[in-house]
Specification:
287 residues, DNA-binding
DNA sequence: CCCCTCTCCTGATCGC
DNA sequence: TGCGATCAGGAGAGGG
C-alpha cells in the first residue's frame, strides 16, 4: 500500500523521466479514475511538466498554473513504457514518445486536473489544501504537531492516520512508529505525555526515512516503482504483518487488535495502554 | 468544530 | 470443485 515513502519513490521516478515533457494525448478507462475530474483529463493536454510535487500521499504534476493531482489509493501505480498490464485506468502520452500508464487494481486511486491555491510561499493544488504537512516537510514543526495531537480526544492510531493532522502515514508506518515508541495503538492521544508524543513522531519520521532509503514497502505487490521494481522495506518491518510472531524486542507474542476499523499489530509487553498520562511502555526509549 | 461510521473496489484466502 | 463470506485499506461523504 503506498504511503509516504512509496509515493516519494514514485515521485522521484516520475521526475527523472518526465520533467520538461509535454503531454500530447490522454486516454482514460472507466469513470472511477476521473470521479473528481468533471472534464476528465482533457484540461492537461498540452501542459509541460515543470515539477512533480508531493504532500503526504498526494502527488501532482506541475504545469505552472495548473496541476494534475494523483492519489494512488490502495493499489495505484504509475508505470513508464511498460508492457500491457491489467487494470490500466489511464494512459498518458508525452511529446518524446514516453508512455505513462496509471494502473490501479482496487480503484481507490484517482487523477484530477486542479488549480493552485497559495499556501504561504508555496502553491498547493486545491484538492490538497486540507492535507497537513508531512514529517519530511522542512516546514513541519514538531512542537506544533505535538500540541495538535495532545488536544485530540481520540486514540493515537486514529490521529496518526488522520491526514489533516500529519500526512503520509498509513496503516503500515503507524504500526511501525507505535511499536518503535512503545505506545499502544488504542491509547488516547490526550493521555500521552509531550515526551511520548515527541518520541513517537521522531520514530515515525525515522521509519519513513529508512523506508524511503529502501525504496518503500512492497508488502503485497500492490506497490512498485515506475519501472515495475519492488521496494525492500518489507524485510525490515517490526510490527506490521507480524501477528502471532515473537516481538523482535522482548519475545512476547505480537497481538492484533482493531483501531479505527484498521488492523493494528502491537506487542502486549512493549506497548502498554496508557490509562492516564505518564505510563510508558517497556520498550520506549530503546531506539 | 470534533469525532465517528460507512462506503467505494478487487483479488486472495478460507470454510463448507 | 465450487461458491459464498471475509478481509485488506485511503479518504471523502455524511451523521451525531
Amino acid at each position: 500500500m503506498p504511503e509516504l515513502p512509496e509515493v516519494e519513490s514514485v515521485r522521484r521516478g516520475l521526475a527523472t523521466h518526465l520533467l520538461g515533457r509535454r503531454i500530447t494525448a490522454v486516454q482514460t478507462y472507466g469513470e472511477r479514475v476521473i470521479r473528481y475530474a468533471p472534464h476528465g483529463l482533457e484540461p492537461v493536454v498540452g501542459g509541460t511538466v515543470t515539477a512533480i510535487g508531493r504532500r503526504g500521499k498526494f502527488l501532482w504534476f506541475d504545469f505552472g498554473r495548473q496541476a494534475l493531482v494523483a492519489h494512488l489509493g490502495m493499489s495505484g501505480q504509475f508505470r513508464l513504457n511498460c508492457e500491457e498490464l491489467p487494470h490500466v485506468r489511464a494512459h498518458i502520452t508525452f511529446d518524446d514518445g514516453t508512455l505513462l500508464d496509471f494502473v490501479d487494481q482496487r480503484t481507490f486511486g484517482y487523477l484530477a486536473p486542479d488549480d493552485y491555491r497559495a499556501d504561504g510561499e508555496e502553491k498547493v493544488p486545491c484538492r490538497v489544501c486540507h492535507i497537513a504537512r508531512d514529517l519530511l516537510d522542512p516546514q513541519c514543526e514538531l512542537p506544533f504537531l505535538v500540541q495538535k495531537t495532545k488536544a485530540k480526544r481520540t486514540q493515537i492510531k486514529r490521529v496518526l492516520l488522520d491526514q489533516t493532522v500529519v500526512s503520509g502515514i498509513g496503516n503500515i508506518y503507524a504500526d511501525e512508529a507505535l511499536f518503535a515508541a512503545g505506545i499502544h495503538p488504542a491509547s488516547f492521544a490526550c493521555d500521552l505525555t509531550e515526551l511520548q508524543l515527541t518520541v513517537l513522531y521522531c520514530e515515525a519520521k525515522a521509519v519513513l526515512c529508512r523506508a524511503l532509503e529502501a525504496g518503500g514497502t512492497s508488502f503485497d505487490a500492490l506497490y512498485v516503482h515506475v519501472n515495475g521494481e519492488s521496494g525492500y522495506f518489507d524485510r525490515e518491518l517490526r510490527a506490521y504483518g507480524r501477528t502471532g510472531l515473537p516481538c523482535l524486542r522482548c519475545g512476547a507474542i505480537m497481538q492484533r487488535t482493531v483501531v479505527a476499523g484498521r488492523s493494528s499489530v502491537f506487542c502486549p509487553q512493549c506497548q502498554v495502554f496508557n490509562e492516564s498520562e505518564g505510563t510508558f511502555g517497556a520498550g520506549c526509549g530503546k531506539i
